[in-house]
Structure formats: structure tokens, C-alpha cells
């Protein structure tokens, strides 16, 4: 689903559509009731998202990669570094830092770093009935929006790490298990895993090792299996 906004917005995140919250999320989500942590029709239906928009996910990834690789070419650096700004999401500073640490330790061909000047994308926070999502204008700029209410109901570090996965080229796969980061909110609110699994890490490494050619040839992790 695409929405008409200043930015081409793809609701790519966990997709919980709830009443707008009025207070920022705390450092971690509230304890959730016991659940199976396995995605079922009921757990997926418990929230209403836009559904994964593969074309828009791809556009966001391409915009970030284009910006990062252009800077790499100018500096002659060996590794691809994706820079971000967290200034517009101060409530989630610890979750963003943890998500960055998780991804940097999980992949080798691309690294995340907070930028002091220019950046490839930014994090934002606020209230949105769609929940958290990734958005791009298709011209080398984009942002991750972190919704307060969703981050109170779901594990906040998992939400942030999941949304960051879109920046690195991964789409949603809500039917996956809790061990799969891009299953997002599918396994329910008790799922607290913020780490990509081995397949997800391998896909990101493959994408950033070979660039857009690999992406176009189908290395992109499909949402449906």
C-alpha cells in the first residue's frame, strides 16, 4: 500500500493500527502476557498494517545504498558505511544505539554509524495510527518513524532493529517465527528478539557485497516463501 504524502510512504514496519498514544514509550516495552511467539493467523490479525510493499521497500534500500556508495567512492573507503541521524528520535536513543550495535555485529559488508553532519537516513518519533514504518522520497533521503504506542506494546529494541532491517534491504515477513527479525509483530507482543537470524544476516551481506545488481537479480529476501 502506498500513501500520498510529501514522501512516498511505505508502511513497512510491524504495522499495528491503534488509537494514537499521547505519551512517549519507555525504555522497554511493558511485560506482555505469555504467548507462543509463533506467528499465527490470529496473532497477525491482532494488528492491522498496510501489508508489505516490496517495491517501496526496494526503493528505500536503493536510495540509502546509492547515497552510501556515492560517499564511499569519494572517500575511497573499503567498507560501505551507512550514516544516520537520531536527533529527531531522542526518546529512542538507547534502542537506536542497541540496534546499531546488533546490526554492526551481525554483518560485515555494511556498517551503521551516527553521522555528525550529512547522513543517509534519519530516525523520527511520534504518534501515528499506522505504527512504525520506513519511508523514502526515492532520491537518497529517507527516515524510520518510531511510533510511541507500538513501542509500548511491542519490544522497543526489536521494533527499532526490525525497521533498520528495511534500510539494509530486508522486507517484512510477518508469518515467520520470533527468531526471524523481519517477522515483526507476527509472533505477538511477547516476542522480544531484536537480532536477525543467520539467513537475514547473510542476505544483507550479499546485498551490500554485490550492490544493486544482486538486489535486482533476486538476492532480496522475499516476504513470502
Description of the structure:
Its EC number is 3.4.24.77. Disulfide bonds join 178-191. A seven-stranded mixed β-sheet has the order 1-2-6-7-5-3-4. Helix 3 (93-106) packs across helix 5 (156-167). It is built from six helices and seven strands, in the order ββααβαββββααα. By secondary structure, it is of the alpha/beta class. It has a domain at 81-211: Collagenase (Catalytic Domain) (3-Layer(aba) Sandwich), CATH 3.40.390.
**Main pleated-sheet profile:** 7 strands, mixed
Shape: globular
Q: Can you tell me the CATH superfamily of one domain?
A: Collagenase (Catalytic Domain)
Q: Strand order, biggest sheet?
A: 1-2-6-7-5-3-4
Can you tell me the residue ranges where pLDDT is under 50 for at least 5 consecutive residues? Answer: 1-12, 15-22, 27-34, 217-225
What structural class do helix, strand and pairing data support? Answer: alpha/beta
Helix content: 25-40%
Helix-strand string: EEHHEHEEEEHHH
Q: What is the terminal separation in angstroms?
A: 20 Å
| Percentage of residues in DSSP E strands | 15-25%
Looking at CATH, which topology of one domain would you report? Collagenase (Catalytic Domain)
Subcellular location: Secreted
InterPro entries: MetalloPept_cat_dom_sf, Peptidase_M7
GO molecular function, one term: zinc ion binding
Family: Belongs to the peptidase M7 family.
